[in-house]
């Protein structure tokens, strides 16, 4: 019943009875139970042709709050929302990811607590979702991986039980996910037609896949979509951190572009970004050529993935995609060149509409889904 009310599929007692084929009296009892629990409200609803307007059931904004964080070495985005998905507060902050999990998770806990205290101290915290730039195991640990599978800033995090740590610190259920998965989920939840493929080109290159049903593909080890080391540039002699040559991340990431232009990264990524933005704005030919080459490689990789997944939307995110329009047009050109027409006829290729908010908004979507899935509902109803 709560799922029907939440999705808006059935928002009155009569509709619920119709949809569930339960007796009106049974529905009445259950609805009264939900009203007493404070999870839903029942108010005068819209117009009707004759008689009393039907009373409309809605999830109560007072029933709880959720929190989401998209943690990144340069900027961490936080948001809290009520159980209807209405964002109550947002914040951009710096979390010292490179200082290791203890310090970083301590700071993250403090920032989330401060946001909750300031904007939702009267409501119970129902779920927290945290995105990290690394593959995450199904139980919320960073994987024990060689350096090549995660951002270099996370070198001290191998095997950290992040979800368990935060659950103890915040006294609420916590889901930890790969940051690009959350970005994909954010775009899919904000009107981008699915199935959806999100490719983030930043310090490295990662991708996230959301099915037509809205499910994220995570794989057996949480590493699905980790495409940084796909061999794309067969003529490249740039040696990747993994020891191979021609890896996608070593030729088409934002870091690779900076490296080739002798701009330091990641020692001072913001300074590097300013320097690169100035070169782009001044139309420096070497810079523009390098960016277009990165876009072509990115498009070649995208064409492979598109022919495997057959998405309706491809979204480009990360610092590289934000540089200039050449990136989007370069990716489009390579995809149309390499993928068969069947795959591109109805495909939309676009840059992220949510920009740097994609991850945290995807986090809110996931936190709401987890609050109202079977385990979440059991917790919600037993908590009263
Ligand atoms: Zn590699």
TrEMBL record:
<comment type="similarity">
    <text>Belongs to the ROK (NagC/XylR) family.</text>
</comment>
<dbReference type="Pfam" id="PF00480">
    <property type="entry name" value="ROK"/>
</dbReference>
<dbReference type="InterPro" id="IPR000600">
    <property type="entry name" value="ROK"/>
</dbReference>
<protein>
    <submittedName>
        <fullName>ROK family protein</fullName>
    </submittedName>
</protein>
<dbReference type="InterPro" id="IPR036390">
    <property type="entry name" value="WH_DNA-bd_sf"/>
</dbReference>
<dbReference type="InterPro" id="IPR043129">
    <property type="entry name" value="ATPase_NBD"/>
</dbReference>
<dbReference type="InterPro" id="IPR036388">
    <property type="entry name" value="WH-like_DNA-bd_sf"/>
</dbReference>
